[in-house]
Specification:
The complex is a heterodimer of chains A (288) and B (335).
Chain A lengths: L5 H26 L1 E2 L1 H18 L14 E4 L5 H10 L40 H14 L6 E6 L6 H12 L5 E7 L2 E2 L2 E2 H4 L5 H7 L3 E6 L3 H14 L7 E6 L7 H4 L7 E2 L4 H18 L1
Parallel strand pairs in A: 2-3, 3-4, 4-8, 7-8
Antiparallel strand pairs in A: 1-9, 5-6
Chain B lengths: L2 H7 L20 E3 L1 H12 L3 E5 L8 H7 L4 E3 L4 H13 L3 E7 H7 L1 H9 L6 E5 L16 H6 L5 E3 L4 H13 L4 E4 L4 E3 L15 E4 L4 E5 L2 H14 L5 E5 L2 E3 L3 H8 L4 E9 L4 H11 L6 E6 L9 H7 L4 H12 L1
Parallel strand pairs in B: 2-3, 2-4, 4-5, 5-7, 6-7, 10-11, 10-13, 13-14
Antiparallel strand pairs in B: 1-8, 6-12, 9-11
The chains are: A alpha/beta (288), B alpha/beta (335).
Chain lengths: 288, 335
Amino acid sequence: MTQETAAERLERVGAAAYRIRHHALTMGEVQGQGYVGQALGAADMLAAVYSDQLRYRAEDPEWEGRDRFLLSTGHYAIGHYAALAEAGVVPVEELETYGSDDSRLPMSGMSTYTPGMEISGGSLGHGLTIAVGMALGLRHQGSEARVYNFLSDGELDEGSTWEAAMGAHHHQLGNLTAMVDINALQADGKTDTVLRTEPVTEKWEAFGWYTQRVDGNDVGALLAAFDNAAAQAAAVGRPSVILCDTKVGRGVPLLEDREKAHFMRIEEHEWQLCREQLTAGYEGKAAR
Amino acid sequence: MSATTAVKGTAPKLKTSAMIASFADPGQKTAPAPFGHALVKAAQENDKIVGLTADLGKYTDMHIFAKAFPERFFQMGMAEQLLFGAAAGLAETGLVPFASTYSVFAARRAYDFLCLDSAEPNLNVNIVGGLPGLTTGYGPSHQATEDMAIFRGMPNLTIVDPCDSVDIEQAVPQLAASEGPTYLRLLRGNVPTVLDEYGYTFELGKAKVLRGGNDVVFVSSGLMTMRALQAAKALAAHNVDVAVVHAPTIKPFDAATVLAELNTDRLAVTLENHSVVGGLFETVASAVVTAGLGKRVVPVALPDEFLDAGALPTLHERYGLSVQRIVAKVLAELG
């Protein structure tokens, strides 16, 4: 097998991001509303981690040697299910059951419902604390598996996130990577009006983490950040954080320009338009 | 009244002294750090057992384990949310964590992390809470008078309120072996050894009749079983014959054993080192009502108040947990 070129890698992950966005729109249409904006914003992060970083077995989601991906922001489940479908863990056809009675894909992600969902997120500020325990437990048992925790900038309000940040540094958890989606939006409005979390980069650096801040909608920048983290931090037992500035609704101009809301309302006739805009944007980009 | 006469007429005031005062009676048989030693023993047989604490290793007897198995002990710092989130993470990788702190911090401060990270996925996380009920004179910041009330509503959680060193030594391996999360109301330091005289063995989920009696039946848990046994002996001198049922597992509760004892004409009394709200008394009361027994039950429990600071013997007397107060209450009930 020939080595994948950088361009091919970029194209592969970009295509995955497109499909993840497409899946998210399909699920959003089932409910008529929801956290579609966040899923679109985080799709590049999810694509980078699922199609480039994670070691897993789609047919055996509980394989002991797997890397763990922890979704701390339970309401981003729509994006995570899309990524799990892309990864082959959840059948694409099942996405239509999203948020419906008896579905394995509830609105807020829970480990007891969905294959490949490692934790029950949703009560924000939990993910990184669990990730610390998992990373300790895996290392203690001689596992090479890594732990990735996806969290949002809103979760930086929670004190537990910083307890965990200290703990990960103290225990030298080089097998732990945090990915923070900085979409600058939380339930009550813009992050800087709700509770100012900046300067975020300096905070993580002060907590001892190998810290990188990138455009979270730039697949190339995300992949480079993962490569840097592997080269610079993991080997010396330093936890890594990739701070990802993202745009809510990314990839669908209609939603990118809409007034930003935590829970986005999309009219019935708009879904098809959203998909068309997404595809046009992706194909236009691919053609360039 | 002058200061001189006040001093002459009053016994010397007891001091609060250490945060964790022993409740053992002078000269009573005790065992040192039974939890720590039991955990070491269990860990020798089960290499999945790990220990962690939030800067209270020395005060929860976890230091014994840390010394025996330094590579299996994780210090999480004074960060209880991290302590229990990380305990869940360790359990997710197949390990069997015992995580210790004071009961107040586990129940009040880290509830959400226990509830969602361990109880909802039903992980084998074992919470070890020091200073349950009224076992410190430091006041409400450290007195977990409502820990069982807080925890009883948590689905999947097993709650154990041990009486003595025998209970603790026998409970630890059973907690490690049982599926799902558990909460142990820790007694630490030199813990009284009481139940060895009653041919007793701890069985998770079971209540045990420690002695029979024709006039009164005590249903007790925790250190109040020790007081119940002492009160039963004292009441014998008043020709009152008292049975004692020890119910160390508060949840799931052994209603069958307890109701069989309560379904008689004897005076029924519950005894617990916990608020009268939401603990053993209400557990028994709900079992009684659910079974349709029209039975009156008298609680010996802490009042629904924030308690005073002070010396433990003073406080146990003040709030009705002393043998003397139990005897007086029973005699008053019997008229």
